[in-house]
Design goal:
Oligomer: heterodimer
Largest interface: A-B, 26 and 27 residues
Largest sheet of chain A: 6 strands, mixed
Radius of gyration of chain B: 14 Å
Low-confidence stretches of chain A: none
Structural class of chain A: mainly beta
Number of helices of chain A: 0
Largest sheet of chain B: 7 strands, mixed
Order of helices and strands of chain A: EEEEEEEEEEE
Low-confidence stretches of chain B: none
Distance between the termini of chain B: 33 Å
Strand content of chain A: over 45%
Mean pLDDT of chain B: 91
Chain lengths: ~110, ~120
């Protein structure tokens, strides 16, 4: 079992603020790092899949970076909006088994 | 709706009863995964199928749990003799594994989950 950790556990920010979260994972046997957004009462939604050290991905105001040598990924949200409120999960997979972190719960206050 | 669907969305049962959940993946997806999430934890892998073959099972999957995907389409997860510790959200996800492989083969699409409460 791989230990994937996320921090902070929860976060409250004001609308318009930028924020970021951390996902750390074992760097050995790494294959890919995944970020998901999970809104209450909805299905988790895939945001990014990253595999290469130094990868950076961007979707609108959300971006992510990957450091496979030291075993961490950052997720950034620029200019947070209330609709960004959700739990953000990261996961790593070695082959077909996925290991999830416990998530960062983001609340954006209007 | 062409996404992953799960039924029922909520299930309340008494300890000792059997329950069965269903997952309908995205139609062209050949891989199907089951996860369990308890309060304060991330989803934990239970098992996965490639078409109708169950290729991997977690040690979390006790002998009271069984999963099937008989025709390589929908899947069922059955829990026999439920215990209070089985109370959790059960998530299903599907993906399209490409012959060429690559990380996109592991891009999973999740259903909304079935929340089980064992009283």
């Amino acid at each position: 079992i791989l230990n994937v950790e996320q921090s902070p556990q929860s976060l409250h920010v004001q609308e318009g603020d930028s924020t970021n979260f951390t996902c750390s994972f074992p760097s050995s046997n790494f294959y890919a790092l995944h970020w998901y957004r999970w809104e209450t009462a909805k299905s988790p939604e895939a945001l990014f899949v990253m595999t290469l050290n130094g990868d950076e991905k961007k979707k609108g105001r959300i971006s992510a970076t990957l450091n496979t040598k030291e075993g961490y990924s950052y997720l950034y949200i620029k200019g947070s909006q209330p609709e960004d409120s959700a739990t953000y999960l990261c996961a790593t997979n070695t082959g077909n088994q996925f290991y999830f972190g416990t998530g960062t719960s983001l609340t954006v206050i209007p | 709706d062409t996404g992953v669907s799960q039924n029922p969305r909520h299930k309340i049962t008494k300890r000792g009863q059997n329950v069965t959940f269903r997952c309908d993946p995205i139609s062209e997806h050949n891989r199907l995964y089951w996860y369990r999430q308890t309060l304060g934890q991330g989803p934990e892998f239970l098992t996965y199928f490639q078409n109708e073959a169950q290729l991997e099972k977690s040690r979390l999957l006790s002998d009271r749990f069984s999963a099937e995907r008989p025709k390589g389409s929908f899947s069922t997860l059955e829990i026999q003799r439920t215990e209070q510790g089985d109370s959790a959200m059960y998530l299903c996800a599907s993906s399209l594994a490409l012959l060429t492989g690559g990380p996109n083969s592991y891009e999973q699409y999740f259903g909304p989950g079935t929340r089980l409460t064992v009283t």
